[in-house]
Design brief:
Blueprint lengths: L5 E8 L2 E8 L6 H14 L15 E8 L3 E2 L12 E6 L2 E5 L1 H7 L3 H11 L12 E5 L1 E5 L5
Antiparallel strand pairs: 1-2, 1-3, 3-8, 4-7, 5-6, 5-7
């Protein structure tokens, strides 16, 4: 049976982030989400120019399939390396994948502050009424060349 799901596709070239786009709408087939987000991450991430043919040999793709979003009652529930975060307040929402905190060597509070900044909120909004969700992700992809 086809699987519905949420996913992010992260593209790196020579180990550097080159694009990351995802979908949190769980009503779409997972295969469609991944293929659409891969195209968008390579060509339409507003932070980067589109990938070039010269970069293809350096390209590595990582897929993060997101699990259910769970409200956080106490920030002590958040485990670095296990949980991703969503912070919402009003119409603003920021999402950071679980691997981001590990890659950046962030502690829990730094992770929360950066999730707020991703939502274009004050970095302490997580202490002042913003709604916080945690989620896990199945992350897989190509290994970096050694």
């Amino acid at each position: 049976m086809p699987r519905l799901g949420r996913a992010f596709v992260t593209i790196r070239t020579a180990g550097e982030l080159r694009g990351c786009i995802g979908s949190v709408d769980s009503g779409e087939l997972l295969v469609s989400v991944v293929s659409r987000c891969a195209v968008l991450a390579s060509a339409e991430d507003p932070r980067f120019p589109p990938l070039t043919a010269e970069e293809l040999s350096l390209l590595r793709i990582e897929i993060s399939v997101l699990g259910p979003f769970e409200p956080v009652g106490d920030v002590a529930e958040i485990e670095i390396g296990r949980h991703g975060l969503i912070v919402e307040q009003g119409l603003r929402r920021g999402l950071l994948l679980p691997q981001v905190a590990t890659e950046q060597a962030w502690d829990r509070e730094t992770f929360l502050r950066h999730a707020c900044l991703k939502a274009a909120l004050h970095p302490e909004a997580w202490r002042k009424g913003a709604t916080i969700y945690k989620f896990e992700a199945e992350v897989f992809g190509e290994e970096e060349p050694t």
